[in-house]
Specification:
This protein has one domain: 4-Layer Sandwich (Metallo-beta-lactamase, Chain A). The chain contains eight helices and 16 strands. It has helices at residues 30-43, 60-67, 143-150, 166-170, 246-253, 279-282, 289-299, 321-333, and strands spanning 13-14, 17-18, 76-81, 84-89, 92-96, 130-132, 158-162, 177-180, 185-188, 200-205, 225-230, 233-237, 268-272, 304-307, 340-341, 348-350. The strands form three sheets. Strands 8-7-6-5-4-3-16 form a seven-stranded mixed beta sheet, with helices on one face. It has a seven-stranded mixed beta sheet with strand order 9-10-11-12-13-14-15, covered by helices on one side. Helix 7 (289-299) crosses helix 8 (321-333).
Amino acid sequence: MKNPHFDPSRQHHRPDGFQNTYMSFRGKKWHEILRWRWQAWRAGHPRALTEPVPVVAPELDFVHTNAQAGLAMQPAATWIGHITVLAQIGGLNILTDPVFSERCFPVQWAGPKRHTPPGLTLAQLPRIDVVLLSHNHYDHLDEGSMRALAQQPGGMPLVICPLGHKAWFARRGMHRVVELDWWDSHVLEANSLHAAHARMPVTLTPAQHWSARTATDALRSLWGGFAVLSPDCHLFFAGDTAYSKDFADIRRHFAREHTPEHGGGFDLALLPIGAYEPRWFMKDQHCNPEEAVRIFQDLGCRRALSVHWGTFQLTDEALDEPPRALARALRAAEIPAERFAVLAVGETMRLARRTSPDAPST
């Protein structure tokens, strides 16, 4: 199948799909998958949890009051679980990779099952204005969650996603979708959503990963992360990624917006810390906590929030191991633990309003 978006001037484009910038991804062979599963079985992986993944009751009063505050909104992020975060910035309610289903699989009677409930249920969400979709793997693009969001009061949110996803949504009757290529931006204008929010560009950034929804469509759609430059908060969402030089490139790309007089680097980065063992199998698609710390350093961001752990048992490490490994990595890098937060499922992080020449006054 030909890539309808193919642009030979773009390094990551291929006539039949897409590829990474610094390391070409190849799918694992059947014997490699068998080797992984055999080794895991012999070693007794994954290990049982040492302690429960923390879960707290959400601050519903704050979340809903904040959702209606317009430009007086307090920048905040609530970890719903796995990769899903409710970011409240610039007067908008933004959801990353919404996954509320019981399983991340083509059917709901098989596949990886949730170990922790969503920190906010679909019914408890405020009206979602924007969904940032990083790629089409089942633990990121969840059909049941997207169908539910499309039926929310006031209509479906605007979905911003990488190239190659619009047709999937259209086949399901969902048409408020904007596709982006790496480094391309879509500006959220006040009249495109509602009047009480800031004008903010959303840029799709590279990641070291891959895509597939079926056994025959690997690399046919693009993947990536997002930079959202709201005047009150600069947010970075990495999506799924291995460690690569892409993050140093991202820092250079936004250097002009991140000078000290403009408020410095990203105020918050949502960085994955889980699903990384065994390294020989996962290293070219998922970073481990030590590499997540390197991404944090490469980006030059002010704070980070740990995601992509504690919900679905996808790989060999224990479900509660990533935060312990992250703590060791932060100590080794001499980075204060509070700069790279590990929240309980359902917990909300409040952020200081960004101080920059274009920040709104309240």
